[in-house]
Every structure is written in structure tokens, then in C-alpha cells.
């Protein structure tokens, strides 16, 4: 009988870790896709209930950016500190936009229907079937809350969550055991893995504490920022 070597324990563990990293990254991208779709659905539904195309368009553009904040088509790579500052800017923008639009929904209330038909007939769009107006402002509270929550999670997934860091943090041995959390979690082949854990308040203040006050911006940082903003405000790149 001929024995076929299958590799050392170290090489097997290394390959398992590689697969685990790959699975975590795949699941992260899948989650981003799910929340990206949810955001588009809720933004569209709210538009059908408040008939404000301007708010719809601004929210849509913001959600496009949050879903893919640092695309591979950028003219240059974005340094870590610039990414942190941009992430903080995204969060501030998200807060301002959602708070402002929520206040507008509360102030303006339910739009009037056309010709007393009890149905909306669109603003800049034509609704063939017609949309029944909301019964009260609580509908706007509900959908504004959903949109803000989905966009916050999207920001966390696309800008904060690093699945590699997650694995490194889990490399310690579990108390009272000879196994690490990575070994218990899976080897990447089973599909059983933890992508990340979201603590909203901790993530929020972590982002808000991002600061570059102790560092003077260089010409390279300014050029990177200008290239990024010019690229992101190019509508053809957002579609």
C-alpha cells in the first residue's frame, strides 16, 4: 500500500484559514447586497407615499455611495486616514439627510390626492395603478426609521467591518479549552462562520471619534480627497 501525504497539520490549518477568510468576505459582500436592495425598496416605497422626488433622488444618491463607498474604479487608492475621515463624513451626512427629511415629512404631512379620488397619481412619475395615501404621519415615522437603520448598517458593512481583523481577534484560545474560536466556528468549507457583530452605539461613537486633528493634511491627502469627490460626484460613475 502506498501512502499519499496529505500535508502537514500546519498547511491544513493555513488552507482552512484561507478558506475561512474567503467565506467571510463573500458573506460580507452578500450582506451588503441585501441591505443595498432593502434600502432601494424602502426609499422607493416612501417616495410613493410622500410624492417628493427631490428627497427620493438625494436619498437614492446617498444610498448608492454608501453601498460602494470606495469602488475599484477610483483613480488612486484611498489612504486609511482618508477613509476614516470620509466614513465620518458619510455618517454625518446620513444623520443630517435623514433628520431633515423626517422633519419635512412630519411638517408637510400626507399630500392631497388628485381630484378627490383617494389615490396618488405621481409627481414626476406616472403611477398606472395609483397609490393609496398613508392614513397618518406614523407611516412616515416607520419608513424613515427603516431607511436610516438600513443605511447605517450598510455604512458599517462597507466602511467599518473588516473580516480579516475579525479572524485575528478570534485567534485566541477559548477559556477552558484547547480550541480557538476560529476552529470552533468552522474551517471555511462548511459555510458556518460569523461575519461580524454590530453594536450600534459603539459603532456610531467609534466613527464619530474618527479624527485627524493631530495630523496636518499634505498635498497628497488633498489630491486624494479631491480625486475621490470628483469621481463620486460623477453621475455616470454612480450608475
UniProtKB/TrEMBL annotation:
Residues 36-153 form the DUF1746 domain. It comes from the Eukaryota. InterPro entries: Dsc4-like, DUF1746. GO terms for cellular component: Dsc E3 ubiquitin ligase complex; endoplasmic reticulum. Keywords: Membrane, Transmembrane, Transmembrane helix. Coiled coil: none annotated. This is DUF1746 domain-containing protein. It comes from Cyberlindnera jadinii (strain ATCC 18201 / CBS 1600 / BCRC 20928 / JCM 3617 / NBRC 0987 / NRRL Y-1542). GO terms for biological process: SREBP signaling pathway. The chain crosses the membrane at residues 27-47. It holds the Pfam family DUF1746.
Amino acid at each position: 500500500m502506498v501512502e499519499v501525504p496529505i500535508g502537514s497539520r500546519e498547511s491544513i490549518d493555513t488552507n482552512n484559514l484561507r478558506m475561512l477568510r474567503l467565506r467571510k468576505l463573500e458573506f460580507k459582500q452578500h450582506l451588503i447586497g441585501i441591505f443595498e436592495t432593502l434600502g432601494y425598496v424602502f426609499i422607493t416605497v416612501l417616495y410613493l407615499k410622500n410624492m417628493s422626488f427631490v428627497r427620493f433622488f438625494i436619498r437614492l444618491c446617498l444610498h448608492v455611495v454608501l453601498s460602494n463607498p470606495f469602488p475599484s474604479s477610483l483613480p488612486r487608492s484611498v489612504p486609511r486616514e482618508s477613509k476614516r475621515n470620509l466614513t465620518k463624513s458619510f455618517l454625518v451626512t446620513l444623520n443630517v439627510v435623514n433628520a431633515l427629511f423626517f422633519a419635512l415629512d412630519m411638517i408637510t404631512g400626507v399630500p392631497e390626492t388628485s381630484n378627490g379620488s383617494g389615490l396618488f397619481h405621481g409627481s414626476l412619475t406616472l403611477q398606472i395603478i395609483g397609490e393609496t395615501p398613508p392614513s397618518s404621519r406614523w407611516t412616515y415615522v416607520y419608513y424613515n426609521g427603516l431607511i436610516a437603520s438600513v443605511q447605517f448598517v450598510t455604512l458599517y458593512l462597507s466602511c467599518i467591518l473588516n473580516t480579516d481583523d475579525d479572524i485575528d481577534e478570534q485567534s485566541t484560545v477559548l477559556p477552558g479549552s484547547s480550541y480557538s474560536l476560529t476552529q470552533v466556528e468552522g474551517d471555511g468549507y462548511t459555510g458556518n462562520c460569523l461575519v461580524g457583530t454590530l453594536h450600534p452605539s459603539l459603532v456610531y461613537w467609534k466613527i464619530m471619534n474618527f479624527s485627524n486633528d493631530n495630523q496636518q493634511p499634505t498635498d497628497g491627502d488633498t489630491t486624494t480627497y479631491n480625486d475621490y469627490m470628483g469621481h463620486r460626484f460623477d453621475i455616470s460613475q454612480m450608475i
